[in-house]
Amino acid sequence: MTVSYPTDVWDGDSRNRDSDNAPQKNPDWRDWDRVFTEVVATQNRINSNHAGVDDVTLDSVGTLATKTGLTVVEKGNGSIHKTVITMDEMQVVSTDGVAPGADGAWGTQQLYTFPQGHINVLGKHIVFPLAGLEAVTGGGTGFSTTADFEIGVGTVAAAQAAAFDLNGGDEEDVVAAIVCALTAKTSDSIESSANGTAATVDGSTAALEYHLNFRTVDNADHGTVADVLLVSGTFTILWTCLGND
Known about the structure:
Layout: H1 29-50, E1 63-64, E2 70-76, E3 81-94, E4 106-113, E5 117-128, E6 133-135, E7 148-154, E8 175-183, E9 186-187, E10 191-195, E11 199-203, E12 209-216, E13 227-243
């Protein structure tokens, strides 16, 4: 059954009754048919709001990057969205710096692109469970078995830089970097970070993007050979699109 949500609140009328003149009349199948129709229409509307999808472009959800191990659930309604991104052993390649003694090894993975427009982000939270970060090779060829690195979310993808750490720039301006320590190639504690400061970003010309980034703390944390960091965790965004140019 396909039923659209009515524009007016149902007053109880059906093909069997006029609620103004016969409110006490015994119901028959026509009354029940109207009741079922109203319930279906209401459920359809609620389901649409739960998915965070509306028929207006400004209320649409963003786009998840295509990546094995990366999934998203969109919640909320046409105004406020809750985007919950899950990373399940998502592979992010690490690259050693050009000058290893001065340049940290780094990696990046795009996560999410918002719909075009002015995006008001109300809050962000990321958490990696115990052993949620794991070096595939380790042993110092790629990551050191006991490597330390900063991992965070930024509006710009990490790239080669003459620096260690993410250093508080736009590679971690969404969620501040967490200093993660590996033990036997895996993270040895629950790692989390939150940002509850609301901010509006102009994504009307170029849509706002979020990237997961990491960079090692010093030269001993990574060898010259590329490695892979397996990332498991959850990244949650609470946001709304205010409008577009």
